[in-house]
Design goal:
Elements lengths: L45 E9 L10 E6 L24 E5 L5 E7 L4 E3 L2 E3 L2 E7 L7 E6 L4 H6 L8 H4 L5 E6 L2 E5 L2 E2 L14
Parallel strand pairs: 1-10, 1-11
Antiparallel strand pairs: 1-4, 2-3, 2-7, 5-6, 7-8, 9-10
C-alpha cells in the first residue's frame, strides 16, 4: 500500500462513551433542592420518579446517565424563553441528573409538574428524560406523563404523535409511597420489540 494511500475505514465502536462518576454529585437527582439562601416555598406536590433502564432481553443497564427537565408545579420554567419566567418557583431547579445502579435503577425527587402552552399547543404535565451511556451512539430522549391528568394526556400534541396502542408506555404508573411521597414508576427499555421498546423522540 502506498504511503499516501487513504487508510481503510475501521468499524464503529459502540461500547462507549464512558462517563466518570465525578459527573454525578450527591443530590443531583433532587430537583427540589434549594439553589439559593431563601427559605423554600414548597410549591407543588413533591414526588419520586423511579424506574429501571434495560436493554433487549430485559438486562439492566449499569452506569447510564439520565437527565430530567420539566416545568415547575405552575407550569413555568426559569428560562429566558418563558414569558412567565418571573412567576417561576425560585426554589425549583427544573433539571436534575441521576445514574443507574447495578440493577439499572434510577430515581429523581421532583414535583408533580404543571401543564403549559408552547408552539405545539397545550402540553400535559410531563417530565422530559434523556439517557446516555455505554452502548449508545447518541443520547435518546423520551417523556414521562402522569396518570393524574387523563384529559390533558388525551390532547397532548406530543403524545398524540404516537399510535394509540403505544401511548400508555409513556405514562408513569403509581408505585406506592416512600418517605411520605407518592412514587411513580417509569421504566425505560432501550431496545426490544415494538411492544417493549420505549418510544423515543428526535432531538
Amino acid at each position: 500500500m502506498p504511503a499516501d494511500a487513504p487508510l481503510p475505514p475501521t468499524s464503529q465502536e459502540t461500547i462507549g462513551p464512558f462517563f466518570p462518576r465525578t459527573l454525578f454529585r450527591e443530590g443531583d437527582n433532587d430537583l427540589t433542592r434549594v439553589a439559593s439562601d431563601a427559605a423554600p416555598t414548597g410549591r407543588g406536590e413533591a414526588i419520586l420518579l423511579r424506574g429501571q433502564v434495560t436493554r433487549e432481553g430485559g438486562f439492566p443497564c449499569l452506569n447510564m446517565i439520565l437527565e430530567a427537565w420539566q416545568a415547575d408545579a405552575g407550569g413555568r420554567f426559569d428560562h429566558p424563553l418563558d414569558p412567565e419566567r418571573h412567576l417561576a418557583d425560585p426554589d425549583f431547579l427544573g433539571w436534575g441528573r441521576a445514574w443507574t445502579d447495578e440493577d439499572g435503577q434510577f430515581e429523581f425527587r421532583t414535583v408533580l409538574p404543571g401543564g403549559y402552552t408552547d408552539g405545539t399547543g397545550r402540553r400535559a404535565p410531563h417530565v422530559n428524560l434523556t439517557a446516555m451511556g455505554a452502548g449508545l451512539m447518541r443520547r435518546v430522549l423520551t417523556t414521562a406523563f402522569f396518570p393524574d391528568f387523563p384529559a390533558e394526556n388525551l390532547t397532548d400534541p406530543v403524545l398524540a404523535l404516537l399510535p394509540e396502542h403505544l401511548r400508555g408506555r409513556l405514562v408513569a404508573h403509581p408505585d406506592g409511597e416512600a418517605d411520605g411521597l407518592r412514587v411513580f414508576r417509569f421504566d425505560i427499555r432501550l431496545r426490544g420489540s415494538a411492544g417493549e421498546e420505549t418510544p423515543f423522540f428526535e432531538d
